[in-house]
Design a protein that fits this description.
Rossmann fold, Arc Repressor Mutant, subunit A, globular
Length: 220
C-alpha cells in the first residue's frame, strides 16, 4: 500500500458488518486530512493490520467474532502504544465498556453519532485528548444508577484540590493538560489521582468519571 503524507491521519477500521464498515470508509475518505489505510473484519485482523500498517488510529467495534474489540484494544494499546483507539459502541454494550476502558481505549463514541461527531472525535484523539461522548456518559450513568450503592464513599473525603482534579478529569483532559490548567506538575496530578482513587475506593479513571457524574459534581 502506498505511503500517505505526514499530515494525513492514517486509520484502520475494525468492524464486522460490511455495510457499516464501507459506510465509515466512504465517510472518512472524503475528509481531506484522513485516509483509511486498512479494513479489519475482526479483532485478530485489526491487530495484524496495526502491526503491518502502523496507523495513527484504529476505529474499533466492540463486538466482533474470533477476537472482540476489547481484546484487540488491549493488545494494540500494549504493543503499539502510539496508535490511538476509538471504540464505537451500540445500545447494550454498557456491560463491557468498563473492560474496554481498562484495556486502554482512548475514546468512546456511540454508533449513531453524526459524521461531524465522528470526525471531531478522531481529531481530538490525534491531538492527544481522551473522549467519552456526553450521550454515552449519560447512558453509563443510567446503567450504574440502577444499582444500590449503600457503601458508596462520599466525596467529602476529597480535598478542594482533589475535587478540582476530579472535575477536570471528566472533561477528557490528559494529566499534562490538567497540570497546565492548575499550574502544577504532572507528577502532582498523578499523586492527586492516586489519592482520589484510594479515597473513593474506585478503580481508575473511568470509574472516577462515572462517580463524578452520578454524584452530580458535573453536568452531562
Amino acid at each position: 500500500m502506498s505511503e500517505t503524507p505526514n499530515n494525513i491521519i492514517r486509520i484502520v477500521i475494525a468492524e464486522d458488518h460490511i455495510v457499516v464498515r464501507k459506510g465509515l470508509c466512504s465517510l472518512l475518505d472524503d475528509e481531506p486530512d484522513i485516509s483509511v489505510v486498512g479494513e479489519a473484519v475482526d479483532g485478530e485482523e485489526a491487530v495484524a493490520l496495526t502491526k503491518q500498517l502502523n496507523p495513527d488510529l484504529v476505529v474499533m467495534d466492540i463486538r466482533m467474532e474470533k477476537m472482540d474489540g476489547v481484546e484487540a484494544t488491549r493488545i494494540i494499546s500494549e504493543t503499539y502504544p502510539e496508535t490511538s483507539i476509538l471504540v464505537l459502541t451500540g445500545f447494550g454494550d454498557e456491560d463491557i465498556l468498563q473492560e474496554a476502558m481498562r484495556a486502554g481505549a482512548h475514546g468512546f463514541l456511540l454508533k449513531d453519532a453524526s459524521p461531524d461527531e465522528l470526525i471531531d472525535a478522531i481529531h481530538r484523539l490525534i491531538k492527544g485528548e481522551s473522549l467519552v461522548s456526553p450521550r454515552l456518559l449519560r447512558r453509563l450513568f443510567d446503567e450504574y444508577s440502577r444499582y444500590e450503592e449503600a457503601e458508596d464513599v462520599e466525596y467529602e473525603k476529597l480535598t478542594p484540590r482533589e475535587m478540582e482534579v476530579l472535575k477536570l478529569l471528566t472533561t477528557g483532559l490528559r494529566n499534562e493538560e490538567i497540570a497546565r490548567t492548575l499550574v502544577i506538575s504532572e507528577k502532582t496530578v498523578k499523586t492527586h489521582l492516586a489519592r482520589i482513587y484510594s479515597k473513593l475506593e474506585i478503580d481508575g479513571r473511568s470509574q472516577a468519571i462515572i462517580y463524578a457524574f452520578r454524584k452530580g459534581l458535573v453536568d452531562v
